[in-house]
DNA sequence: CATTGTCCCTGGAAGC
DNA sequence: TGCTTCCAGGGACAAT
């Protein structure tokens, strides 16, 4: 499940392969990720374009093109981008070909991922909240977001239009690290708790990036390897296992239809 | 605007 | 063994 650390890892690995390269041809095996665009129209917008750079915004990968438009990729739940995989990959939805037979393969088991174009990157960035790794994401900025909302704090962390990039796993990990109950109403957090949460969000994300992301299910980076971040998870996807801080069995509840893991001893309302 | 719920999708695990 | 049922969850969208 690619969240910010996974998408950041993918983007970083693709930069040296893709920067300056030109799309020679593409093959589309499934048009669902293209939305309203036909394969022909998609191809027309991409083939011949040179890649001027890659960036990440929230969980989106932006591939900037010489013509001024941007190819926008969202991997959702099970999408992967693989660089020159040796074997024929199952669930391949699209292939992008470059010079010297280099190729970028988009696979996606559940077909939630999307490939689209924007003329201005603001079309994407304007509807996303602050990036939690941006220096402007301060405890004060977090406090402002939480103070007006009575939803569970975890639900607020998952709202991409407020903070862009945190998903289900890292929300659980950040709340555990800051010892805050995921269902606690956002506006009831104390200044101290907000400070802890802010610190925990950045720590958890930075640590996961250093570990090349978490591979709870299907995630692989472009080199085909799994990440290691999940090996250090304290609560996420660890229902029934002991809390590493106190030994209590990790609980699972549902918040906003999302499985939520926490330690009932360390994380109080 | 804030909040909540539904839907999309398919492999794998669990249950019988 | 083989069938059925349920679960995973990001984000668009609708409803309140």
Name some characteristics of this structure.
alpha+beta, N-terminal domain of MutM-like DNA repair proteins, DNA-binding, about 270 residues, single chain, 7 helices
What is the beta-strand fraction? Answer: 15-25%
* Low-confidence residue ranges: none
- The gyration radius over C-alpha positions equals 20 Å
What distance separates the N and C termini? 28 Å
How many beta strands in the DSSP annotation? 10
Give the number of helices.
Answer: 7
CATH topology of the largest domain, anyone? Helicase, Ruva Protein, domain 3
Describe what this molecule looks like in 3D.
The relative contact order is 0.15. The mean pLDDT is 93. The chain is 26% helix and 20% strand. Helix 1 (4-18) packs parallel to helix 7 (191-210). By secondary structure, it is α+β, with helices and mostly antiparallel strands. It starts with a helix and ends in a 7-residue tail after the last strand. The chain has helices spanning 4-18, 39-46, 122-125, 139-147, 153-157, 168-177, 191-210; strands spanning 25-28, 51-57, 60-65, 70-74, 79-83, 92-97, 103-108, 114-118, 251-255, 258-262. It is globular. It has two domains: 4-125, Alpha-Beta Barrel (N-terminal domain of MutM-like DNA repair proteins); 139-262, Helicase, Ruva Protein, domain 3, CATH 1.10.8.50. The protein binds a DNA duplex (16 and 16 nucleotides) through residues 1, 3, 32, 59, 74-78, 91, 109-112, 114, 148-151, 155, 158, 160, 167-168, 216-218, 256-259.
